[in-house]
Amino acid sequence: ANVSISKSRLSLKELLFLSPDLLNQSLSNTLSVEPFSLDGSIILRDSIIRLSALSISQAPNIRFTAEGEIKHIFQPEETNGTLQFGMPEINTKWLTEILQGLGLKENIPDFSILTIEGNLSASPRSPDFLLNIGSDLGHIDLSGSFDFNKDSFDLVSRFDHVRLDRIFDNAELGSFSGSGGISGNGIRHKSITADALLSIDSLRLKGYDYTGGQITSAIQPSIYDVTFSMEDPALSLDLSLINTLSEEPFSIDGSLILRDSAVSLSAVSVSQAKNIRFTAEGKIKNIFQPDKTNGAVQFGIPEINTLWLREILEEIGLKDNIPDFSILTME
User: Fold this and answer.
1) Distance separating alpha carbons of residues 316 and 322, to the nearest angstrom
2) Is a pLDDT exceeding 60 seen at residue 172?
3) HSE-CB of 44 using CA atoms within 13 angstroms
4) Higher pLDDT, 37 or 330
5) Contact 265, 254 (CB under 8 A)
6) Is residue 314 classed as helix, strand or coil in its secondary structure?
7) What's the DSSP call for residue 249?
8) In this structure, are strands 173-185 and 193-205 parallel, antiparallel, or unpaired?
9) Are 187 and 216 in contact (CB under 8 A)?
10) Three-state secondary structure call for residue 17
11) Which residues pair with 69 in a beta bridge?
12) CA neighbor of 7 nearest in space, from 60, 56, 52, 44
């Protein structure tokens, strides 16, 4: 069967008249102002569907394009193919109204340009994808894959001049460029093991471009660790965090105030019931100027479950020469 579509028009207003509860009133009004236009061709032959120059648009708001071939469409277990898609035209004001109609009324960044291109290939049980997002807020490239049978996944990303100041409405921030990736397995079985990396080529903060940063993370069903490093002329930093995942969540109390490049800690307490409690109080000035940073912080660990601590040490490989103790406090 061959279906050729040429300058056909579809009115969402008539469809919504038949199903008035399909969308909320605000969203339906936005989508039904102008009819949608369809163009291109769809060919179905021998369980193969081919899309050629398919275009769905609503002038002057959005245009969606698709082209490709999908095989074995009536046999989901064997379906495979390649599909190129894109949104070369998007009216950002119209898109903002759509997002607000969906309930996202706050924290929508102000932008005027947005284009999306993508590619989806392979089969539903092992899909590969490529997605390019470009706007006046920056450019993001994403590519990845998921193997349903092996329960494995992989994601690689690239960020070019992403305007964090406009996205988060914070003048202290600037643009960010870098790359990242994560690979692992266990999503289906809810037992994720993964390794992740985020490289910071440049990050503007308080008018200064920090470079040479890296965040690495290893995640296992019972433990995860995060390492943050920065090698910049103005800042050299190497931090590591290891945390055991357990049924007991961590509780955080107190106040942390950041004002005029100074951070103040007041009665800060981080605890996990029956296992550990960490306290901190004080003030650090000029935190964005490492050569001028000064202050004082009083901290302590008044409560530590020594059996829990022993398990932590054993999990990170310190199985030998752990002394036997039942009381431990730090100030």
Assistant:
1) 12
2) yes
3) 6
4) 37
5) yes
6) helix
7) P
8) antiparallel
9) no
10) helix
11) 50, 82
12) 56
Per DSSP, what are the bridge partners of residue 231?
A: 236
Is 70 exceeded by the pLDDT of residue 41? yes
Angle (nearest 5°) at CA 17 between 16 and 19 = 60
Q: How far is CA 207 from CA 70, 172, 174, in A?
A: 50, 7, 7
Encoded tokens for 201 = 């080529």
| Residue of 276, 316, 281 whose CA lies nearest to 296 | 281
**Residue 163 Cα distances to 73, 101, 230, 304, 328, angstroms:** 41, 25, 21, 43, 47
Identify the CA nearest to 315 among candidates 215, 239, 242, 240: 242
Residue 109: count of CB within 10 angstroms of its CB? 16
Share of the chain above pLDDT 70, in %: 78
182 vs 178: CA distance, rounded Å: 14
pLDDT at 248: 63
What is the rounded average pLDDT of the residues 211-238?
Answer: 75
Distance, in Å, from the CA atom of 249 to the CA atom of 272, rounded to the nearest integer, reads: 6
The two structure tokens encoding residue 25: 């009133």
Q: What whole-number distance in Å separates Cα of residue 121 and Cα of residue 127? A: 6
Span 2-28, pLDDT tens digits: 666 666 777 666 655 555 555 556 666
Task: Kindly tell me the number of DSSP H helices and DSSP E strands found in the chain.
Answer: 5, 18
Q: What type of residue sits at position 40?
A: G
The whole-model pTM stands at: 0.65
Arithmetic mean of pLDDT, 299-317: 81
CA angle 181, 183, 187 (to 5 degrees): 130
Q: Where are the beta strands (DSSP E) in 59-189?
A: 62-71, 80-90, 114-123, 126-135, 138-147, 152-163, 173-185
